[in-house]
Task: structure prediction
Amino acid sequence: MSSLEQLKKHTVVVADTGDIDAIAEHKPQDATTNPSLLYKAAQMPQYQPLVDEAIAYGRSTAKGDHELIDAIIDKLSVTFGCRILEIIPGRVSTEVDARLSFHTAATIAKAHQLIALYKEAGISSDRILIKIASTWEGICAAEQLEKEGIHCNLTLLFGFGQAIACAEAGVTLISPFVGRIYDWYRKSQGVDTIPINEDPGVKSVTTIFNYYKKHGYKTEVMGASFRTKEQVMALCGSDLLTISPDLLSQLAASDVAVPLGLDSTAAQKMSIDRVAMDESTFRWMLNEDAMATEKLAEGIRGFSADLDKLKSYLRDRMN
Result:
């Protein structure tokens, strides 16, 4: 049995890609995309018909140049999502514009637009996760959306306070970024590698998982942004893990034993104090965590930059 097959016995495997062919190859339960992945996929020759479809939709519905490009991107995101849902049994995550990360009402409005596009395509909202950055404003938006029956995936999650706030808000899913946490500490410590048993990204997800299971939160934990297959295997037992096609291939080719790393039954017996959460506590905990503060801001800037690249690419395609 391959390492990937062993992992699937304890954890829902999610493909972290916009490449539909790669998803079909590895047969994950769910899939997740982001502006960076969408930008890469939109340039692949095999997906040009999807880009053309989105451009045609935008031209037929938008009222001005600014509205046009946003309409095309929304449609492109949903069109990729629909194609992905044809080949997976579960859910697809579709991301809200990163520039709305500090605007609760605008995030809610964009989520409604995306869900409406999926509905037009005949896709039920229970197969969609609206992906939102884990800012205070994003978490407040997700809380409201969840009350409306729109499920959310809170991304760019690096700090414990972010995780607690998401659980208190009743969001469906969080995506703590293992690899980016690892990157920050590796740079901070001036080292090339950190042993897996000391990996701060793995430790962060473990802490969050144990806290959630101890206190009975329904929010699912989906480790994300992995650098090595060892990081993935160390978190076997997490509710979900979203994994790049390259690492999925490595796991499929490996026969290394994958023991259970996270155990919800064991977590329920741990002595873990519950943290009272409100906006000031959230902001203070984020402020006290230099890594989480820096990586959250960097992540939002990065997704925004890739969205700008996608816009530029689409404008060139339309000329």
Summary: The beta strands are 12-16, 30-32, 92-95, 128-133, 152-157, 173-176, 220-223, 240-243. The chain has a mean pLDDT of 96.
